[in-house]
Every structure is written in C-alpha cells, then in structure tokens.
C-alpha cells in the first residue's frame, strides 16, 4: 500500500517531523500497511525523522489504557445489529492491533543499524545535543531510547559529545565511556583505534579503567591483554571531516584503506610494499581529482589498475 490521500500527500511534503512521525505511526499499525520501504526511506532521509519516531513510539504505554477503555465501552453496549458490528469491531481491533504492533516494533527501534557507502559522510543526532559523524564505508549500531549506546562495527566515527548525557561506546571487545569529549573511533578487521581530540575517554571502565586524554590514541587488537595510550598525530581525530587524512608511521595498506573509505575510489596496496611506512597529511580533494599525484607524497608509484588505483611497487 503506497502513501495516498491526506496522510500520504502530507508525508511526501516537507513538514514537522513529529507530525510526520505520528502519521507513519498510525499508518504502520494498520494491519493492511505494507509500505515498509517508504517508511524506511522516510526514517533515513533526515536524522530528525528517527528522533521524532522515537518520541512517538516512546508513548506506547498510553495505548494500553485506550485499548482497555474501548473494550469496556463495547462490553457496555451489549448486543448490536450486524450492520454496526463491523465498524465497532474495527475500533477495538484497530486499537488492539496498534498496541500489539507497538509492543513488537518498539523494542526493535531501540536498536538500529546505520551504514554509509565508501566516500559518503553522514551526521547522526543523538540525545542532549550529542552527535556523531560517520565516514564512508562505516557501520554502527545504536541502542537505548536516548541513543546513548553505540557499537562501531566497522569504519570510522567521530563523536562530538557536548551534552550532559554519557554515551557508552563499544568497538570490538573494547568498551569506552566519554568524559565530556570529542573523539574518533575506528574499526578495521580485528583492530580498533581511539583518538581523543578534546576531553577524555575511559577505556575498559569495568576493568583496567585506562584513561585516554586529549592528544592521545589507543590502538588495540581484540583479545589484547594490555591497553596502552600513546601520543596521537596532531589533528588526526576527525581529519576526514575537514577534507584531510593524517598518518603517523602508517603502512601503505592502512593508507590505501583510509583513502578508499574517504574518497570512494578503489585504492589498494601491493603486498610487496608492506614494509613501506608513511607519515604526513593527504588532501582528499586532491586525491579524488588526481590519484596519481599521490605518488610524489607517498614516495611510491600510484598506478591505475582494474578500475582503481594501486599503491606501491611490484
């Protein structure tokens, strides 16, 4: 069933997110509703839409008294003509269906996955003025009514947590708690990295309680027995949001992976160049415009191959 009539026309026009969320909430609880693709597209169109939906769905408890009241009304009415039974049955059935659908759907909304394509960036609104920015080829999972639990599955996410609410972050087997801060979290295979730009982050809050301060980074592999912060490259946290990539003694494989994620171009590195390291800053606009020009900065050939670009020598 595609959007039509008053609700459909309104939802296809710009409007107050709360009004649109309420209309979607009513329509999606109709037993005949099947426009889930349209609903998903509306949620993904603007972070404010998901926030509004959360607020509407959070009122699920208000549905239960409504259902009980309507059931009581029908019982008090007693026997009714066949002509009226359909309408009155729809009233109660619709309320019950709405309540049951809410009870099923709302827990799922407490956990949502958001992903970006290579070369894409996306800003996600959290509660209390907090936000995070996703780099390309990134996948995260949000949970909690206030979106205060975030798991970074892969890629890079920059957390800008200016609000009072604490946000718990998981990446691999590492848990993090912010202490009023701005920091970047990266995940690549079994490797995780945290770079703090402002404030501080507490890693492994239930165990080692390792503090990572501004200007520091933590690099670790799943299962690591020890967590040790080190100095981070200046300006490295969220550099990709400013059109740059900052590296400190990085392998060409790491450089290629970062370029691929941030530009959307198919960069890769020759295995034979695995020992080569790079320290410096790359401009993303320049890399997109002329990938071959990276050769002078990296000190290795950068050649087109198979629709992409290969760093390093054979």
Count of discrete alpha- or pi-helical segments spanning 4 or more residues: 9
Q: For the report, how would you describe the main beta sheet? A: 13 strands, mixed
- State the end-to-end CA separation: 56 Å
Tally of extended strands? 18
Give me the strand/helix succession: HHHHHHEEEEEEEEEEEEEEHEEHHEE
CATH class group of the largest domain: Mainly Beta
Q: What would you call the structural class?
A: alpha+beta
- Strand proportion: 25-35%
Average per-residue pLDDT, rounded, comes to 79
Coarse shape: globular
Number of domains: 3
Report on this structure.
The protein is of the alpha+beta class. Helix content is 34%, strand content 31%. Helix 3 packs across helix 4 (47-57) and helix 5 (63-77) packs antiparallel against helix 6.
SSE diagram, text form:
Layout: H1 5-11, H2 17-28, H3 36-45, H4 47-57, H5 63-77, H6 82-109, E1 111-115, E2 122-125, E3 131-134, E4 139-143, E5 149-160, E6 168-171, E7 174-178, E8 182-188, E9 191-198, E10 200-203, E11 210-213, E12 216-221, E13 230-231, E14 244-251, H7 252-263, E15 267-269, E16 277-283, H8 284-289, H9 294-298, E17 302-305, E18 308-311
Parallel strand pairs: 5-6, 15-18
Antiparallel strand pairs: 1-4, 2-3, 3-5, 4-5, 5-8, 6-7, 7-10, 8-9, 9-12, 10-11, 12-13, 14-16, 17-18
């Amino acid at each position: 069933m595609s959007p039509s009539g008053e609700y459909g026309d309104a939802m296809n026009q710009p409007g107050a997110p709360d009004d649109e969320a309420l209309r979607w909430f009513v329509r999606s609880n109709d037993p005949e509703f099947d426009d889930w693709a349209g609903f998903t597209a509306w949620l993904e169109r603007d972070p404010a839409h998901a926030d509004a939906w959360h607020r509407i769905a959070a009122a699920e408890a208000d549905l239960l008294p409504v259902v009980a009241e309507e059931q009581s009304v029908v019982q008090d009415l007693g026997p009714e003509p066949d002509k009226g039974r359909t309408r009155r049955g729809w009233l109660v059935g619709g309320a019950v269906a709405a309540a049951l659908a809410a009870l099923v759907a709302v827990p799922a909304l407490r956990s949502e996955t958001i992903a970006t394509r290579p070369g894409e960036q996306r800003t996600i609104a959290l509660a209390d003025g907090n936000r995070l920015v996703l780099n390309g080829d990134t996948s995260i999972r949000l949970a909690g009514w206030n979106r205060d639990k975030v798991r970074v599955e892969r890629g890079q996410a920059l957390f800008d947590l200016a609000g009072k609410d604490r946000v718990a972050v998981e990446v691999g087997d590492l848990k993090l708690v912010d202490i009023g801060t701005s920091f970047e979290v990266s995940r690549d295979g079994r490797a995780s990295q945290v770079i703090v730009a402002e404030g501080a982050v507490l890693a492994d809050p239930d165990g080692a309680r390792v503090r990572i301060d501004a200007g520091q980074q933590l690099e670790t592999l799943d299962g690591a027995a020890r967590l040790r912060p080190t100095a981070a490259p200046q300006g490295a946290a969220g550099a990709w949001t400013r059109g740059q990539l900052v590296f400190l003694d990085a392998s060409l494989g790491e450089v290629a992976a970062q370029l691929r994620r941030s530009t959307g171009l198919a960069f890769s590195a020759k295995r034979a160049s695995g020992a080569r390291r790079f320290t410096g800053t790359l401009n993303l606009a320049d890399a997109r415009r002329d990938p071959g020009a990276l050769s002078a900065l990296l000190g290795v050939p950068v050649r087109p191959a198979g629709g992409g670009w290969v760093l390093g020598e054979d």
